[in-house]
Amino acid sequence: MTTKKTVSFSKNSTNIFFHILTRCNLRCQHCYINPVQHGENTLPLSTIAAWLEAFAEKSDRANVIFLGGEPTLHPELSHAIKKARQLNYGSVTVDTNGYLFHDILSKVKPEEVDYFSFSLDGATREMNDKIRGEGSYDKCIAGIRESVSKGFATSLIYTVSKVNLHELEMMVPLVKELGISRFFIQVIGIRGKSADPSAPLQEACDKLQVSREEWLDIIPNVAEKVAEFGIIVTYPKVFLDPEEAFECAGLVADNYFIFPNGRVYRCPLCEDFPLHSLRFEDNQLVRTGKISESDLFELDIPEGCVMNKLIQPENLSYKNDGTAEYKVACCMLKEEILQN
Ligand code: SF4
Ligand code: SF4
Questions:
Q1: Measured from the CA of 26, which atom of ligand 1 is nearest?
Q2: In this predicted model, what pLDDT tens digit does every residue of 103-132 receive, in sequence order?
Q3: Does the reported pTM lie above 0.85?
Q4: Can you list the domains of the chain with their CATH numbers?
Q5: Which runs of consecutive H residues, i.e. helices, occur in the chain?
Q6: Fewer Cβ close by (within 10 Å): the C or N end of the chain?
Q7: Å from CA of 114 to ligand 1 middle
């Protein structure tokens, strides 16, 4: 038996998504990193520490997720992790493509990192490597095995698009065999490379996003099968049921997406635009002027998320009289499935 719950937004839990560099060894076809908007620099450890301190002052037990680019390419990632621990962060996660540079698993202990989270976008080598690059499947699987064998809590992220949706079901036995403890199903966002119509992944199919019917048919089913192994499964809600209220995380949650050029966003869908509501200046967090993402959060539209309507309207649908058929949820609203 499994239980499904929608994880409500809360202002009491602060989540810091900290891109400490944008450099990466891979060139995934759906990469959301946009160097023009996010910078190309690698933050020195002193800046990482100062920015972690700024958020530790704002919130008692913030959670930090170290991201890139590929965060393990940062030679001082282990020191950044230890700094977050010293500052009493509630949890520390590292998202990685599996290459685990600088022997990171030997430089930190399982007590210091809550999760190493690996990205794999196909159950087969052929599919994953088509999206993420030659050799990345084997590297990621080897990285997961090493992480599990060293006693780290290990999770896996699978980003679903039209291209790899049919392999999601095949992930069920793989996820069990690998011994991971959390499985995140992500939905592809039309940003970064995915927003470029000339990108190879776009040319492979007319649109990348799965339809509402496909999403509702396949995702909850696969999630439930994985959860039956005792693995916690999380996936975005995406489509709200008619009785469910729409909420924008920009107004009712406390999430921060930090980039190495100092931009700090509250909404990931705004990251392709200079709409950040905060920025670091001399290591102090300051508000930006108008117009920023904050002005968009206030807009109340029948389709739900304003940014979704602006950048990925393909997932909306209208009745004959022109009214919206359903609302699209905030991209950060998640369903969580657990074994009872
Ligand atoms: S591993 Fe991540 S940062 Fe690197 S190319 Fe792929 S999606 Fe982009
Ligand atoms: S994704 Fe939409 S609903 Fe969520 S924070 Fe951004 S604008 Fe708000």
A1: 5
A2: 999 999 999 999 999 999 999 999 999 999
A3: yes
A4: 2-245+329-339 (3.20.20.70)
A5: 35-38, 45-58, 77-86, 104-107, 125-132, 136-149, 171-178, 200-204, 212-227, 249-252, 293-297, 306-311
A6: C
A7: 21
